[in-house]
Amino acid sequence: MSLTTFLQQCLTGISLGGAYALIAIGYTLVYGILRLINFAHGDIFMMAGYFMIFAMASFPWYISIPVVLLVTVLLGVSIERVAYRPLRTAPRMSVMISAIGVSYLLQNLATYLFTALPKGYPEIPFLKKIYQIGGLSASFVTFLTPVLTLIIVYGLIILINKTKIGMAMRAVAKDYDTAALMGIKINRIITFTFAIGSLLAAVGSVLYFTDRMTVFPFSGSLPGLKCFVAAVFGGIGSIPGAVIGGFILGLGETALVAMGYSTFSDAFTFVLLIIILLIKPTGLFGEKTTDKV
Amino acid sequence: MKLKKVFAITLSACLSASMVAGCSTGSSSSASGGAKVIKIGAFEPTTGENGGGGLQELLGMRYANKTHPTVKIGGEEYKVELVEVDNKSDKTEAVNAAQKLVSEKVSVVLGSYGSGVSIAAGQIFADAKIPAIGASCTNPQVTQGNDFYFRVCFLDPFQGTVMANYANDHGAKTAAVITQLGDDYSSGLGSFFKTAFSGLGGNIVSEEQFQTNQTDFKAILTNIKAQNPDIIFAPSSITTAPLIIKQARELGITATIAAGDTWENSTIIENAGTSAEGVVLSTFFDEAEPANEEAASFISGFKAYLKENKQDEIIPAVSALGYDSYLCAIKAIETAGSADGSAIRDALKGVSIDGVTGSISFDENGDAKKDMAFIKTIENGKFKFLTTTTVK
């Protein structure tokens, strides 16, 4: 393998990892607060793809992107309101089943509304500009994805550690009932968490689909599953963990395909999941949880 | 008293009408009262990976059902009911869907789009003694060793050879092949291309595989780019195609990209945009050159039907094949003069029709005797007919 090929593969891997990381954060945030694996997250990501297609049909990109971010946040928040909030006191299993239901609902709704035929993702001119550096050739979005991911993660960590609402989020994550007793409005915090998660899914969706160009009703399911693995690998509940998990997954997958083992590229993701569950069930950066009585 | 009289007259009218219907060839469908129904199963994916293409094939069948709503068995008019099941592009679901058709007691099955699901369901139809007519499933294994499976399209060995010949004729010396893991259509066609291309003195420099629902092909394309082939043969689903095409062009690969029949679908042009220019593919049907009268009337009628169903007004080849498979089924039922599966199967062996994709008759394997393929390219955002190829 020549150096150019190697660098090109690395670039692909890092870019894929960046998109994975953004989605994985969505899983981790919601899990951190609600102890819920939001299985519909991958489908919110898919819906954001469709929103972009429709937004770009009538607006230029600089209006479309904010519109898509807003609509996706509304979708995420309303899913929480309709499908999860009524189950707040129900056993955790019920909420998870509700999440699986929402996931199927979104997939089938998309099939019904937009047909199963893949739809072309609109081109955002400046993101799609192709740059050549030596033998490397890639569009701007490939370079942008990992950088933007790191900036967003930095911002998010500041938000959680330094702001008032961040403190409230940490409190809710630590102890639900005590936080409520201290006057924190639990529902508002949860809504806020879902809003951030969906926002990141929307950003991830713009980056991911600009690079991959087609959206169909199931395009959220496999990335969703992989990002869930990334979140678990990094230690679910931990934001840096999710990011590192995302990058490891993206790079590992690309490396396997590059070496000619594409047969095992999906298996890699899930083998990784099994190994981490066996060796370090809390993930790389996961905290040891003590059962609350 | 009066009532009785009316009743008697009506009864006698009915009887005589049915006798007329029984003897003459006239179409007095009112006489049969629409009571007799024969069921034809449409075994197609309308969701899942091949949902888009499956729906197009199904539209061809629905349209055929609209233009040929009845069939005569032994002089009696039967209404044809199309029983649709969704096999969800999934081999496990395909088996369930096939069992549903069996329990619905259909006389013939049409489909499916995608060879894998057809192979999976083939044994079920054979066990239930229900003949099946595949429309666009091109893998040899669909009909091999299965006495009840027929098909109206050409086969992958043929298609692979056609594309290898095309590549060779246009000066390609090296080729790369990209196939989908676990997909009988893709891997089958890819390997037939490889054999044929090597046989013609060409050199396969790279073989890459990808997973179902994979959306990132940059890694395998980077490997291919390093080998710099003259042509890339990538038989795959229409979901995958635009991704491969666009990502290849993005990485600066300039080789011709070629594929099989699945790629003749306007969504590919729509999604891949200008990157799709120059893509070459083989297909079953060309709407610019109707093979016969049936084809000419199909083209005008089906375009209006597509418009009604809010689809693009470009006739997909699979719709034409879906239509033809229906015609074969009707003809076989008429010839057999029975709704019994085995009888229809025997009749199918001798059936010969002028379908919209050319004349169709079956060989001893149940495959259509077809020796012609259309080669098309994408130019200025449209499929353009290049040449027809025959392989002996």
Structure explained in plain terms:
The complex is a heterodimer of chains A (293) and B (392). Chain A has 293 residues and is mostly helical. In chain A, 74% of the residues lie in helices and 4% in strands. Chain A contains twelve helices and four strands; from the N terminus they run ααααβαββααααβααα. Chain A has helices at 3-34, 41-58, 61-84, 92-114, 125-128, 140-162, 164-174, 176-181, 186-212, 221-234, 239-258, 265-279; strands spanning 119-120, 130-133, 136-139, 214-215. In chain A, a hairpin with a 2-residue loop joins strand 2 and strand 3. In chain A, helix 2 packs across helix 9 (186-212) and helix 6 packs across helix 7 (164-174). Residues 19-33 of chain B have low confidence and may be disordered. In chain B, strand 10 (256-259), helix 10 and strand 11 (280-283) form a beta-alpha-beta unit. A seven-stranded mixed beta sheet of chain B has the order 8-7-9-10-11-14-15, sandwiched between helices. In chain B, strands 2-3-1-4-5-6 form a six-stranded mixed beta sheet. A two-stranded antiparallel sheet of chain B has the order 12-13. Chain B is elongated and about 90 Å long. In chain B, helix 3 packs across helix 12 (317-336), helix 4 (91-103) runs parallel beside helix 5 and helix 12 crosses helix 13 (341-350). The chains are: A mainly alpha (293), B alpha/beta (392). The interface between A and B is large, with 41 and 37 residues.
Features:
heterodimer, A: 293 residues, mainly alpha, two-stranded antiparallel ribbon, two-stranded antiparallel sheet, 4 strands, 74% helix, globular, B: 392 residues, alpha/beta, Rossmann fold, 2 domains, six-stranded mixed beta sheet, 13 helices, 21% strand, elongated
